[in-house]
Each structure stands twice: as C-alpha cells, then as structure tokens.
Automatic annotation (TrEMBL):
Keywords: Antibiotic resistance, Cell membrane, Cell shape, Cell wall biogenesis/degradation, Hydrolase, Membrane, Peptidoglycan synthesis, Transmembrane, Transmembrane helix
Family: Belongs to the UppP family.
NCBIfam families, per database record: PRK00281.1-2, PRK00281.1-4, undec_PP_bacA
Function: Catalyzes the dephosphorylation of undecaprenyl diphosphate (UPP). Confers resistance to bacitracin.
Protein name: Undecaprenyl-diphosphatase
Catalytic activity: di-trans,octa-cis-undecaprenyl diphosphate + H2O = di-trans,octa-cis-undecaprenyl phosphate + phosphate + H(+)
GO biological process: cell wall organization; peptidoglycan biosynthetic process; regulation of cell shape; response to antibiotic
Transmembrane feature ranges: 48-70, 82-103, 109-129, 141-161, 187-205, 217-238, 250-267
EC number(s) recorded for this UniProt protein: 3.6.1.27
Molecular function via GO: undecaprenyl-diphosphatase activity
Cell compartments where the protein resides: Cell membrane
Recorded superkingdom: Bacteria
Amino acid sequence: MQGSDIFDATLLGLIEGLTEFIPVSSTAHLLLVGRAIGWQSTGNSFEVLIQLGAVLAVLSVYFARLWQLFITLPSNPRSRKFVTGIVIAFLPAAIIGAFAHSFIKEVLFESPAIICLALIIGGILLLLIDRMPRKVRYHDAMDFPLGLCLKIGFFQCLAMIPGTSRSGATIAGALLMGTDKRSAAEFSFFLAMPTMAGAFTYDLLKNRDILSTDDLQLVAIGFIAAFVSALFVVKYLLDFVSRHGFAPFAYWRIFVGTVGLIALYNFA
C-alpha cells in the first residue's frame, strides 16, 4: 500500500461523508473522482463499504433518539409505527438490489456517461420539485403513514442508477407526496441506516474471497474519513435545508454532471 493510495482513500472517504446525506449522489462523486485520479477498487467494493462510516455518523448524532425509540418500542404505538415504516421503506431496495446486484456493479457503475446524465436530470427534477407549489400534509417523520413509507421506499430504488442519489430520490419522493422539507430529509437519514448497512453487509459477503489485506486497510481509512465528514453534514444539514431548500444541491448536480460530460467528450 503506497502513500498515494492512502491519500486517495482519504479523499474518497471525505467525499463519501460529505455527499451521502445530501441529494447529490455520493456514488456518482466517488466514481467520477475515482476515475479522474485513476482509482482502482476490487469489485467496485470500496465505494460501498466505506458508506458504513457515514451510517455510524448518523447513529452517533441520533443515538439518544434511537435509544428512546428502542426503549419505548414495546409500549409506544407511535414508536412501533415509525420503526415499521422504516422497515417497510427499506424492503423494496433490499429485494430489488439483491436481484440486480451484478448488473448494478458491472454495468451501471462502469457507465460514466449514464452517471453524468443522471446527475443533470436529477438536478433539474429536484429544482422543479423544490420550487413547485405543494400542499404540505406531513411535518414530522414519526407520523408518516405506512403507505407513504412504502412509496418512499420505491423511490429509493431509483438510486440504484448511480448519479440518481439515494437521499435525492427519497427526499424528492417524500416532497411529492406532501411532506415538508425537514421531515423528508430526516426520514431519509433514518432510512439510510438499514439501507446502507444492508448494502455494506451484502457487498462484503459477495466480495469476501477477492478482497486483499491492502483493500481492507484502504477501506478502513476511507471509513474513518467518511465518518468524520458525515458527522459534520448530519449535524447541520436539517437546519440548512429548512433555510435554503434543495436548490443549491440541484445546481451543484447540474454543474458536476455537465463538467463530467464535457470531460468525457474531450478525453474520449
């Protein structure tokens, strides 16, 4: 393992943490930056495995609330409904992701043009959704109906196309169905925990025989960097969204996707 590998793993870990919970697609940023710096990941696993660092950042910030949910689960119907809603929202991506795993990793992850187009299209849609007049019916993620949770779960499946953004898909879906911006982002945080932990476990099991010691060391470095940067984002994102909405992220998506397409065209 060389010093340049350590630097690259740290850089990509920081990018993962900074972009995982905002609707700009962490996977797209990792794959495009990785391509630009010549990063090689065994089975494209690094990009998935370091996401657990971002998950732990959410767990640390929301630990008190998660603990409260845990201890009130047997006695509080509201807590049971919320946890059930998260599980229901998680299931579509878990089922479809397991069946489509090879196609996603071997085809979509290797298509930078698709990633750039998804960034641009997703940015335009997010901008339109952020600005459209909407009737807000839900202000608290704890009170989302189970049917709404399932619909958000299906929206999350769109993020299997790199560049779409898991958080972007879930937030956009929630906004379209009548949630306010803060509760949409918060539900996306909670849904990320089982989704990303499941992706981590599944990818590790699928690639356990081909990952080397160096691969695991680099994953550990990226994991730590992702945890640190995600910690910052999770602490401040909800307040930022409440004040500014999602337009800044939409413009960033369009910018990155456009620059990526130009670079692909010029260096093809």
